[in-house]
Design a protein that fits this description.
The structure is a homodimer.
Chain A (H helix, E strand, L loop, with lengths): L2 H14 L7 E7 L3 H14 L2 E7 L1 H10 L9 H8 L3 E6 L12 H10 L1 H8 L2 E6 L3 H7 L3 H12 L3 H17 L2 E6 L2 E6 L6 E3 L9 E2 L3 E4 L2 E9 L3 E3 L2 E11 L2 E9 L1 H8 L8 E7 L11 H4 L5 E7 L18 E7 L4 E5 L2 E5 L2 E2 L8
Parallel strand pairs in A: 1-2, 1-3, 3-4, 4-8
Antiparallel strand pairs in A: 5-6, 5-17, 6-10, 7-9, 9-14, 10-12, 11-12, 12-13, 14-15, 15-16, 17-18, 18-19
Helix pairs in contact in A: 1-2, 4-6, 7-8
Chain lengths: ~375, ~375
């Protein structure tokens, strides 16, 4: 077995989930995740944890949902009671076909998803971590060969996370202390307020309230944007490819927008509700192990030297106690490349120029 | 997907486990059982049950047990609470390598097994059913090609179980009402008492207190055997092949024994404890879908036109209330072919001759 699978398991169990002796750990094993499950079990044995492997298969779920009459039981107790006693839930995602569920009617899928609201909430109440084990299907979705995709995934996952968390702490400090962010690049000059908001150092560990491996971004909840912004990294939303988005903000709201591809999908997003025209997230991608777009938001938004903005809902962890923030039903991330001919300012001070942060070698004031 | 996989799932869910709407069903999916899991999920959806799939992998378990220090937690509560709320537990066994656990030290395996005593007991408290999905590894263990093995498994599983249960009810009635059984064939003339004992109609359904699919035997708990018996069907015990066993009983105990192959293993079995020299089970194999020895006791002992006797422990369901019966630590089944030149008598009356039962066409009094 590839040594990187063992390294991945060690990062997941030790850095991300912080598993300790006697912990009850649910390991959710996707169809293609067997090898990672073996490596994770070895690591859990070393730590003296208890494990219970569940099988998460899109094909099994699709067969069940398809044949059911649609009146699903809410939160069956044999599953809620298991999760209530779990310390960690590790999801090893490894699709063998990313489009399996497409054949199940949307209403039934929605009804099943709704019936499992409490299950999801209980999972989120544990030290949960989601990660990806490379499969051919995921490589295909990313438009890569399998071996190339394996390299891509492990470059993103096997970072020096302690070092990266320190780097990201610099950015969090700047955002926490700052009042206004400005982003400037071609066809982009956008300002937004971050006064009173708290940034999250998303360092791929429950110790940082970060639940995806890989991660590697710092994000906060901006408001009152003014100006224009160009998103040059492609995105897929609900199966629709959207490219080259331009947004213009006035008085904190999108007032003008366009997309070279998928403009109808962009229209639908922005007109969902009132909050959909306002911002919900500003994220600074800092994982330089991710160096290309693969049409998977888990990776794309963490790409080093990118910035993403989401229209719609804000994360409550960024908001002051008691403040509701943007409560939109949508949260759609859009990404812009800031690796060259660009700068980000906080309160008039340049903190990133052409992809180099102010605390890094080669930074030009 | 092979239509027989769907038929297998239907037999498992409807005939064997008797799943009803709203039931909580744990489906234990072995490494090679994905296709059967999909078919079972479809059937559970149709029935309106709730499902939770767990992943049972020898490789995952071996990795965990091997790396653990051996001081395992007893019955972790996230698993016991799940099982306490399960109505059925369906085990879909499908090894991809039947010798995976061989590399784990025996003491550690024993310690892990012991730590899970309560888990197993809770599983047995549900309407549990174990079945097999054919894999290449199981075909290899049976000494067959994969397609031939698939045919073998489905011939054994896809019976008219209702009809077979009726046939077996005839045999149960004869055994329940009878006092003494005599088996006569070459090198065999054995009598034993069954007075006061109750036979089990093992019809592969929880409705018959029968938990394996396939099944197809009627068994009881005999005592006071006298005479000699020859077991001509090969057997494997604890990895040791044993062939052509002769046992001689006097005053209810084995007093003389021999085996052409594996006599040392036979010695070890019979000298385990006091009960190991006495009988624990008399079983009549009645599944004629099973027509050959495959070195898997799940199939072998149900083979049509065979009789098996076990030395050692008796099943409590065959004993009168309050009676302990044979409490030996071992229970070792040995099989003899009765398809020709043989007869079984109950209280002096021939009930099976040359593989034909008295209620069947062609029976010779």
């Amino acid at each position: 077995m590839d040594q990187r699978v063992y390294d991945h398991a060690e990062t997941l169990v030790d850095w991300s989930a912080r598993v300790e002796e006697g912990d009850n750990v649910v390991v959710r094993v996707d169809e293609g995740a067997h090898d990672l499950a073996v490596a994770v079990a070895e690591k859990l044995g070393e730590r003296g944890a208890n494990y219970l492997t569940t099988y998460i298969s899109d094909e099994v779920e699709a067969a069940f949902v398809q044949s059911h009459d649609g009146d699903f039981d809410q939160d069956p107790d044999f599953e809620t009671e298991m999760l209530d006693r779990a310390d960690s839930v590790l999801s090893l995602r490894a699709n063998r076909n990313t489009t399996t569920k497409a054949s199940v009617p949307g209403e039934k899928r929605a009804a099943y998803r709704k019936s499992r609201t409490g299950i999801r909430a209980r999972r989120m109440d544990t030290d949960w971590v989601s990660t990806i084990h490379p499969t051919r299907a995921l490589a295909q979705q990313a438009g890569m060969g399998y071996r190339e995709y394996q390299d891509f995934v492990y470059d993103a996952v096997l970072r020096d996370w302690e070092e990266l968390a320190d780097q990201m702490a610099n950015m969090k400090e700047l955002l926490d202390e700052g009042s206004e962010v400005r982003i400037v690049k071609a066809e982009t000059d956008l300002t937004m307020s971050i006064e009173g908001r708290t940034a999250v150092n998303s360092a791929a560990s429950v110790a940082y309230d970060s639940h995806n491996l890989p991660s590697g971004e710092v994000f906060t909840a901006p408001y009152d944007p003014e100006g224009e912004v160009y998103f040059d990294v492609p995105m897929t939303h609900d199966g629709e490819r959207i490219r080259d988005v331009h947004l213009t903000f006035e008085d904190g709201e999108v007032v003008d927008w366009s997309a070279e591809t998928g403009e109808a999908a962009l229209d639908a997003i922005l007109t969902t509700d009132e909050g959909a025209k306002r911002l919900g997230e500003l994220g600074i991608g800092m994982n330089r192990g991710i160096d290309r777009f693969t049409d998977s938001i888990l990776f794309d938004e963490k790409m080093g030297d990118t910035i993403h903005l989401a229209v719609g809902r804000a994360y409550s962890s960024c908001l002051p106690e008691g403040e509701e923030g943007n409560q939109s039903a949508v949260h759609v991330d859009m990404i812009t490349d800031v690796s060259e001919d660009s700068r980000m300012e906080i309160d008039g001070e340049v903190v990133q120029r052409n992809g180099t942060f102010r605390w890094e070698d080669g930074f030009e004031e």
